[in-house]
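WARN no homologs supplied; continuing
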Amino acid sequence: MVLSVLIIIVSSTAVMTVETSARVEITVTGLNDSSSSSVEIQSVFSVQRRERWETWVYVMPHSRSNHYVSMLCAQYSKHFCTLGFFTHIMRENRTALANDSRTFYDLIMPTFRLINWFSFSDIFPEERGGCCGNQMGIYKEFGQAQNLSPFDYLSIVMNYTSEGKTVNLIKARYYERLCVNIITVIGFGPGSLKMKIKHKADFAIFVEDQNSFHLFNYYKLRQVLTFDWFKTNIICQDHEWICHVFPPELMESQNSSQTST
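OK structure emitted
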């Protein structure tokens, strides 16, 4: 049974990390095939290696958005799409193996639909909504390059526990009608909040199947848009098993207000 396989995957043991003080660039991106070229999803942030900044990244679907990947995501889900786990932190005690890509393929192929990790490849449009060149490219860039095995990287991607996850990445488009920033890409993890926005305004998550928005106060974003809230109101709306295996600590639905368009 696939679900039992998933539970085994996410129970992987922790890996050790090595950090230096060098400056690096973290590119939050959707990768085409196994190369490092980016598509529309890009937000480049300077991160000090001494800051433990890493993030679990998701796309918010919106079929009428002018954000390319939000529109693509809306073709496959009404709630969210997974982009992967992005990190600059090196793991130790492992050397990349020649069969890493094949191993990761064997792991992700039966599981990608259960976590909405769809391909947005521009090189192979026929792969969009499927698997696995896009996902393998992200593993190569942010998993294998950090000395993570295919098993360990997928275990991290599929770890939906809330501990240590604060919203730390926001990419949004300004919507004049409501004077809000509609979130297109969001990430949760340790470290400071990094945003790509044009206007200092409240944030909104569009609800594709209800034509409405969840609204979040700009100044209280990290207090109210918690991973517990996101897991309960977004992720588990598509996949209830996630909240059964990783139950939210706080089942609060009142952290945001909702308005219709």
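The first strand starts at residue 17 and ends at 18.
OK
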